[in-house]
Structures are given as structure tokens and as C-alpha cells.
Write a structure and sequence with these properties.
Blueprint: E1 3-8, E2 14-20, E3 23-30, H1 36-53, E4 60-64, H2 70-87, E5 91-94, H3 96-106, E6 114-120, E7 125-131, E8 137-145, H4 152-157, E9 160-163, H5 167-173, E10 180-183, H6 194-202
Parallel strand pairs: 1-4, 4-5, 6-9, 9-10
Antiparallel strand pairs: 1-2, 2-3, 6-7, 7-8
Length: 231
């Protein structure tokens, strides 16, 4: 049975979970914002210590590949790659939006025809994808600038649930309501990664460590630091 170490740093929550197959053995969750760089190495250390206390070793690292926070994704990716290189094990990536679908399903919200996770990307931008009831991909991970008519055809014809950190501002922007519902509380977390990571690991769907990058979806724009002193 595969032992999996799963990491999610795509949003406000920093989390690590250990699975034996699809059984959750251990997890650590830190909800303090902007603490990923400090907390994640310690969480991974504690997770590996727990695993080895049971005389087990990890067979693969599962990583939430984004989209989400650029900084958080880079931190998670760097540490995940380092683990894989140091331990000689493969990397398996899972979309943060698919992880959110897993969380929603685990909470028992399966009554809609389409499921649209949304991650806030500032202003009226969100990252989103569209899933059916079985988790099949209807729309791949993408980014959109929301307005009051976004997803109008889908909302008129089908029952939809929009969920995640970007869903609240969409609810407030809608001009003509349709067959939609909302849940802004859903967030990606490592304890919802096990089934996807296991499936991909057993299928050999692993990443090339030399070329793998997080799924930013939008271009990364870096600005020059402001000078501390003027003169």
C-alpha cells in the first residue's frame, strides 16, 4: 500500500497530510496567513517523523499545484521537489480546484448538476473550473474577470453551485439570479488529496521534477522592491 505525503499551500491554509493508500494517518493544518515559509518545513518534519515512527517511508509526494497564491505555490513546489529529490520518490500534482470539489463532496453537497470552484484572484478576477457530479472536468482550470452576467447561460439552464473564496463577490455581482447556490467557506486542504494522489500514483501519472512548475493560470508579474531610503 502506497504511503503518500500531501502538501497544500495554494491559499490561506498551509496543510500537510499523510495517507496509507486512501486512509488518512496524520495531518497538520496552519491557518495563520503568510506563515507558509516558516511553518511548512516544520510540518513536513513532523509528518516524516510520525511516518517513520510507524516504520513506514513515503512512496510519493502529492502537491496541490494551484492555481492560487503565487507565493504559496512557489513555497510548496520548492519543498515538494526537494523532498522528492532527496528521498528519490516521485511527485504527483493535483489541481487546487479539484481538491475544493473533493471537500465540497465530503461535506455532502451533491445536489447540483454543475460545480464551479472559485479562488479569489483579486479585484473581480477568479480562478475557476467546472465539474460534473462525478468530478469529471467540464471546463479546465482558467481565469475570468467576473461581471453580473458571467456563466449566465449555465446558470439559466442548469443547477449550479459556486464555491470557494471567489464565490462571494460573484454572488453580489449577479444581475439576474438563476439556478445557482453558493458556499464561500470551501477551501483546498491536504486531507482531501488522498484519493486523487493515489489514483495518479498507481497510474504512473507523475511529474518531471526538472520541468514541473505550479499551475499559475495567469502570468506572474513581479515588481521591483521599493527603495528603503530616498536620496
Amino acid at each position: 500500500m502506497a504511503n503518500l505525503l500531501c502538501i497544500d499551500t495554494s491559499g490561506d491554509i498551509c496543510s500537510v497530510a499523510l495517507f496509507k493508500g486512501n486512509e488518512l494517518l496524520w495531518e497538520s493544518i496552519e491557518e495563520k496567513e503568510r506563515s507558509h515559509a516558516q511553518k511548512l518545513p516544520l510540518m513536513i518534519r513532523d509528518g516524516l517523523a510520525f511516518l517513520r515512527s510507524t516504520e513506514l517511508e513515503p512512496n510519493a509526494v502529492g502537491l496541490s499545484a494551484g492555481p492560487g497564491s503565487y507565493t504559496g505555490l512557489r513555497i510548496g513546489c520548492s519543498l515538494a521537489k526537494g523532498l522528492c529529490l532527496g528521498l528519490g520518490i516521485p511527485l504527483v500534482s493535483v489541481s487546487a480546484l479539484k481538491i475544493m470539489w473533493n471537500v465540497l463532496m465530503r461535506n455532502g453537497k451533491q445536489e447540483s448538476e454543475f460545480f464551479i470552484p472559485m479562488i479569489d484572484a483579486r479585484r473581480m478576477d477568479v480562478y475557476y473550473s467546472v465539474f460534473d457530479q462525478q468530478g469529471g472536468i467540464v471546463q479546465e482550470d482558467n481565469a475570468i474577470i467576473l461581471d453580473g452576467t458571467s456563466f449566465e447561460d449555465l446558470r439559466k439552464k442548469s443547477s449550479c453551485i459556486f464555491f470557494g473564496s471567489g464565490s462571494k463577490k460573484f454572488e453580489e455581482a449577479i444581475v439576474i439570479p438563476g439556478n445557482e447556490s453558493f458556499d464561500e467557506q470551501i477551501k483546498p486542504v491536504a486531507n482531501a488529496m488522498g484519493n486523487d494522489v493515489l489514483r495518479k500514483y498507481l497510474a504512473g501519472e507523475t511529474e518531471d521534477l526538472a520541468y514541473f512548475e505550479p499551475k499559475y493560470v495567469k502570468d506572474v508579474f513581479l515588481t521591483d522592491p521599493k527603495p528603503i531610503f530616498k536620496g
